[in-house]
Amino acid sequence: MRNVTKVLVVLLLVLLAVGIQPPGSSFPRSMAALGDSITRAHSACCHPGDQPELSWSTGSSAPDGIYSHYRRLLKLEPGISRNNSAVSGATAADLPAQAAAAASQRAEYVTILIGANDLCASSPASMTSVEEFEGHVMTALAILDERLPHSRVFISSIPDLYQLWAVLHGNPSASAMWAGSNICQSMLSGSNTEADRQTVVQRQQAFNSVLARSCSRFRNCRWDRGAVYAYRFTQEDVSTLDYFHPGLRGQEALAELTWMASYWGP
């Protein structure tokens, strides 16, 4: 038994000497965020537009209360770098290109939140099909698996669009913004029936199932187990600039929910 222990100790020392870390023993030295305007922290605070410094994933602004994955990892790995490769307006079709960008950056940790724009079409009939969505997600994950085989990937579920309608459809300012800017009409249009909205709900649940199933097929992928979708956010979590994107409190909640489901949360 002592000889076996000695062999294991020697093997561990050799691995450390050549720079190979045993799985789960180290923190990433670089990270990349993939997805859409939610991860770009679009309209999160104070003025319209992307504000990636406030992102739940790679945000770096200290006074905002958003304890992002990057800020948490920075305490564990002070030299960590990050890239926010998410693009406002992106759909799952854009995810493979974003994955390729993360691979070229040699990201050791990749976060993914995608799907809201595939749901938010001009009408329920115009949403991305489940088959198309799954194809794009699987392609992106395969790219990461092939080109970054030792990196960790984290996938968030899509925030509940029906919850957004439920908490804000009685707010005149929100209804006016949704109509005037054509925001997510498949769910938020004032002319929708409950059946229309339930069609979006069913598609969103299917998309979240795709994300969970796709992630399970790759060894280095972790799913949030539906934590973000299950979160019953309130109107205080939503930006008052467009009544659609997470505001500061929403980004803070996203950071906390996803971190707790990540590799390093409890």
Describe the overall structure:
This protein is 44% helix and 8% strand. The protein is α/β, with parallel strands linked by helices and 266 residues long. Strands 2-1-3-4-5 form a five-stranded parallel β-sheet, with helices on one face. Strand 1, helix 2 (69-76) and strand 2 form a beta-alpha-beta unit. The protein is globular, with a radius of gyration of 20 Å. It starts with a helix and ends in a 5-residue tail after the last helix.
Main β-sheet description:
5 strands, parallel
The sequence of SSEs as H and E is HEHEHEHHEHHHHEHH
Q: Which fold name is given in CATH as the topology?
A: Rossmann fold
Distance between the termini: 33 Å
- The assigned structural class equals alpha/beta
Number of domains: 1
CATH classification class: Alpha Beta
Helices, by number, come to: 11
Low-confidence stretches: 1-25
| Proportion of residues in extended strands | 5-15%
**What is the helix fraction of residues, given as a range?**
40-55%
CATH homologous superfamily identity: SGNH hydrolase
